[in-house]
Amino acid sequence: METMKAAAKLEPGFGFELVEVPIPKPTAGEVLVKVRLSAICGTDVHIYQWDQWAQNRVKPPLIFGHEFCGEVAELGPGVKGVQIGDFVSVETHFTCGVCRFCRTGRGHICQEVKIVGVDRNGCFTEYVTVPAENLWVWNHDLDPEIAAILDPYGNAVHTALACDLAGARVLIIGVGPIGLAAIPVVKRAGAQQVICSDVSSYRLDLARRFGVDLAVDPRREDLYAKVREATGGQGVDVLLEMSGNEKAINDGFKCLINGGTASLLGIPSKPVSIDLADALIFKGATIYGINGRKMFETWYQAQALLEGGLDLTPLITHRFPLERIGEGLELMKAGQCGKIIIDPNGE
């Protein structure tokens, strides 16, 4: 039996193990993808640390990881529309296809969703099986490092394009990898001014590389005062909230102009207290809750932006072989990185 190396959570608790496991076989409707590159996500850090979310969701043993690209290596029974050798990214949320949400084009909020590397074996390995319908086949020469991060980039596209960005003044709170990816998206969509806020000086520096007009550390400066100053006393038209931090959320709504729009992606670790009357109702604010990517509307938008010249390369800051993935997880945990690429081939 052929085997492959993998980073796996074998039992509850902190950490992971590097193991040798059998190469899986695709079942009906599935394909086997040879992983070319993968990337570390904040979700992987939750699983690595075995926090409360991971304890409630993940059932070891599990190969984790869900951001990747690769080549189709084997077709399962009944698969059509793809060929062995196709270069692919993967929509890693596998939906039921028959519930009310799936049948009305809202599969991204399917209540029966299964996620690669969370609910079934993932991509921190050499091969992974996925439903053929979840493949995104690239018909042009896309940088594999960019193809590996279509998942978080897609979240940024969904969050940003939920709002009217033409001529808008935009505040992005939380410039982790998704917040950083949102910067070139909103600029290309016609934003007049882009302001960002984060408590990581490392990530604020990355935001400056992406060309933000103002980068604010709220621990050292008054975000509301800086935004008012930068916008001529107006505030921002659009808030993209990526942090999930209670104070940051409240500060963001304070900066939002009357009639403004907020797109919320950040996940709070506990319930958040907010003054609904002043922050939302009296402002006449429009609020969007963002969950993942619209399948596959967001993917078409994301590809079109890349084909139009959108550059994500400053987002990628570190590269490790699979054997050193622990170093990457620690960097993510410390917030001292952008996106981290993992090469299962050891390069």
Folded structure, characterized:
The structure is a single chain. With 347 residues, the chain is an alpha/beta fold. The chain has two domains: 3-149 and 312-343, Quinone Oxidoreductase, Chain A, domain 1; 162-289, Rossmann fold, CATH 3.40.50. 29% of the residues lie in helices and 27% in strands. The chain is built from twelve helices and 18 strands. Strands 3, 5, 6, 9, 10, 17 and 18 form a seven-stranded mixed β-sheet that branches. A six-stranded parallel β-sheet has the order 13-12-11-14-15-16, with helices on both faces. Helix 5 (150-161) packs across helix 6, helix 5 (150-161) crosses helix 11 and helix 8 (223-230) packs parallel to helix 9 (246-255). The protein is globular. The two termini are 25 Å apart.
Average predicted confidence as pLDDT: 96
Gap between N and C termini: 25 Å
Order of helices and strands: EEEHHEEEEHEEEHHEHEHEHEHEHEHEHE
Determine the number of helices (DSSP H or I, runs of at least 4 residues).
12
How much helix is in the residues?
Answer: 25-40%
Radius of gyration using CA atoms only:
20 Å
CATH-level-2 architecture of the largest domain: Alpha-Beta Complex
The number of E-state strands comes to 18
Q: What is the SS-derived class?
A: alpha/beta
Name given to the CATH homologous superfamily of the largest domain: Medium-chain alcohol dehydrogenases, catalytic domain
Task: Name the poorly predicted regions.
Answer: none
Shape: globular
Number of folding domains?
2
Largest sheet: 7 strands, mixed
Strand residue content: 25-35%
Within the CATH hierarchy, at the fold level, what is the topology of the largest domain? Quinone Oxidoreductase, Chain A, domain 1
* CATH domain class of the largest domain: Alpha Beta
